[in-house]
Amino acid sequence: MYTSHEDIGYDFEDDPKDKKTLKPHPNIDGGWAWMMVLASFFVHILVMGSQMALGVLNVEWLEEFHQSRGLTAWVSSLSMGITLIVGPFIGLFINTCGCRRTAIIGGLVNSLGWVLSAYAANVHYLFITFGVTAGFGSGMTYLPAVVMVGRYFQKRRALAQGLSTTGTGFGAFLMTLLLKYLCAEYGWRNAMFIQGAVSLNLCVCGALMRPLSPGKDGRDPAGRESRVPPAHSTESVKSNGQLDRADEKEGSPGPEEALGDPAAQACQEEAGHRRNVCAFRVLKTVSQLTIRVRKGFRDWYSGYFGAASLFTNRVFVAFIFWALFAYSSFVIPFIHLPEIVHLYNLSEQNNVFPLTSIIAIVHIFGKVVLGVVADLPCISVWNVFLLANLTLVLSIFVLPLMHTYAGLAVICALIGFSSGYFSLMPVVTEDLVGIEHLANAYGIIICANGISALLGPPFAGWIYDITQKYDFSFYICGLLYLVGILFLLVQPCIQIIEQSRKKSMGGTHV
Predict the structure, then answer these.
(1) Do the beta carbons of residue 152 and residue 28 sit within 8 Å?
(2) What global pTM score does this model have?
């Protein structure tokens, strides 16, 4: 089983030494490691699952604010896009604060975004509160959840990541039902307020992300460097305090100059000692934080912006262009399907079993099945990847032609299954750039996917506003996706050219 673009574990400080020191730890591949899987599973439900269910709220926003579909779709797209785009930059927080603190802060920010959005007076207000605030909080919580699973597992890392990220499919199914129920019973504003309270469980998931004890090289696997001089213990503070007190006594006036009784003098000395200790602790904390931030920023900068050599790989550049077009074709149905169902008067049947839930459920099986098939020795991963992409783009083209619930359900099932190719993306990326550049390369791919998710749904809504039909939205997005697939064909074309060149060179030598 392979991990998807949602599954990849960004270990910003991985090196061979760390892996050697982590192996004997009792929680590696067992013990608390499975609590990491559980925490990550719920993070995927609350973050990625909620975003896949935003089509329900999109319908409510259209009715409430009476804005164009293109403008309204920007709210969901901002939330989805920012969650992915900020992914690489969250590494700075992880290197500085650690995964646990980053995830807890992200849970609070995400919940704040949901609650503030309940008081929205217009769509532009939602851009800030939900698109930016909730999206940024989602990114801060999502990435540490993936990182910690990767750090707690060595032998069964793929299995652990696969189990944890099935939360995306389950979340899309459950959150769609939950938001539909809350909107029907309490209205969309109260539904967002309640969802904000539910999102506070992200803080609980973050609290479960207990860092592993430092390895022999002194590094904290939670993303913080233990090489930074540790804070003084109580004993060392006391010893320093005694030295400070001795210095004070040396510079203090003699007994003949002392004023007041001995008890008052002792209180003054104790107060001065406490002030000195507090000042020392503050200075020490500031110096530690400064060193940690500088070290974290240096590691983050070299890890992502030091990867310029990746862009000399023509096939990888083509892969980036594919990523720019691909993800929007998966996201657009989630955002606009509820509105399409409403336009086709299929709301009753869709309320029984939402089409977005069909995509989510089949997506889980698609990940597993495509991963198993691609793992067979007689099958090329690249060919499976291309075939799944072609199936998805054909489904996008056919979807506007379906006007019955049964027809839409079949197409949604195809979209969900074929989009399981996300589980093959890390393998394809590794084939292109090698294992040593996988993390940096995947950070770039995720940013490209985030841009695609950010621009795709508003573009589809804008096309609808012009044509008053969603048909052209899916056709144009399908064409753009087809352009991305053409970029994917660069890889097999280069391989064919190289093979023919080698054969011709071998023939001339003979």
Answers:
(1) yes
(2) 0.64
Judged on CB neighbours under 10 Å (0-12, 13-18, 19+), 338 is: buried
Task: Return the axis-axis angle of helices 471-488 and 314-343, rounded to nearest 10°.
Answer: 160
Residue 139 has pLDDT above 60, yes or no: yes
Q: To 5 degrees, how large is the angle CA 410–CA 165–CA 206?
A: 140
The pLDDT value given to residue 49:
86
pLDDT band at residue 249 using 50, 70 and 90 as cut-offs: very low
Higher pLDDT, 317 or 329: 317
Identify whether the C-beta of residue 131 lies closer than 8 Å to the C-beta of residue 105.
no
Cα angle: 101, vertex 105, 106; to 5 degrees: 115
Beta bridge partners of 372: none
Give whole-number Cα distances, 200 to 52, 368, 396, 403, in Å: 19, 30, 36, 40
Give the length of the chain.
510
- Residue 168: exposure state from Cβ atoms within 10 A (0-12, 13-18, ≥19): buried
CB of 60 within 8 A of CB of 186? no
CA distance 100 to 347: 42
**Percentage of the chain lying above the pLDDT 70 cut:** 73
